[in-house]
């Protein structure tokens, strides 16, 4: 039974790493355009793109780690609780990444650029 859990953990870990690796090219593309922007609104948008990419990558990493910890917890209540806490942090990271465009629009309104 433990080899099934270990195999499942390896599959979850690999999937998480692949998803995180697929988000990295978007981060690199956004960082190369930071210096090329001529308007403040474009700079803010480019910074938002970088931050969203990093948040999604980190949240995916936390979700993967939480999933692996949950699978390998083996019924230990403290390990299961720790895994749930890690998954909760991943959900918070995804939530902040989803709200980032709205926060940038508020920042643009405060700065006065549209």
TrEMBL record:
<dbReference type="InterPro" id="IPR043993">
    <property type="entry name" value="T4SS_pilin"/>
</dbReference>
<keyword id="KW-1133">Transmembrane helix</keyword>
<feature type="transmembrane region" description="Helical">
    <location>
        <begin position="6"/>
        <end position="28"/>
    </location>
</feature>
<protein>
    <recommendedName>
        <fullName>TrbC/VIRB2 family protein</fullName>
    </recommendedName>
</protein>
<feature type="transmembrane region" description="Helical">
    <location>
        <begin position="49"/>
        <end position="72"/>
    </location>
</feature>
<keyword id="KW-0812">Transmembrane</keyword>
<dbReference type="Pfam" id="PF18895">
    <property type="entry name" value="T4SS_pilin"/>
</dbReference>
<keyword id="KW-0472">Membrane</keyword>
<feature type="transmembrane region" description="Helical">
    <location>
        <begin position="92"/>
        <end position="111"/>
    </location>
</feature>
């Amino acid at each position: 039974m433990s080899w099934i859990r270990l195999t499942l953990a390896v599959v979850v870990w690999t999937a998480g790493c692949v998803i995180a690796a697929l988000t990295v090219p978007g981060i690199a593309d956004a960082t190369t355009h930071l210096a090329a922007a001529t308007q403040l609104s474009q700079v803010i948008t480019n910074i938002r793109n970088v931050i969203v990419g990093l948040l999604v990558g980190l949240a995916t990493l936390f979700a993967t780690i939480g999933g692996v910890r949950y699978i390998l917890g083996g019924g230990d209540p403290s390990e299961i609780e720790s895994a749930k806490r890690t998954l909760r942090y991943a959900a918070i990271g995804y939530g902040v990444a989803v709200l980032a465009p709205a926060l940038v629009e508020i920042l643009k309104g405060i700065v006065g650029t549209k």
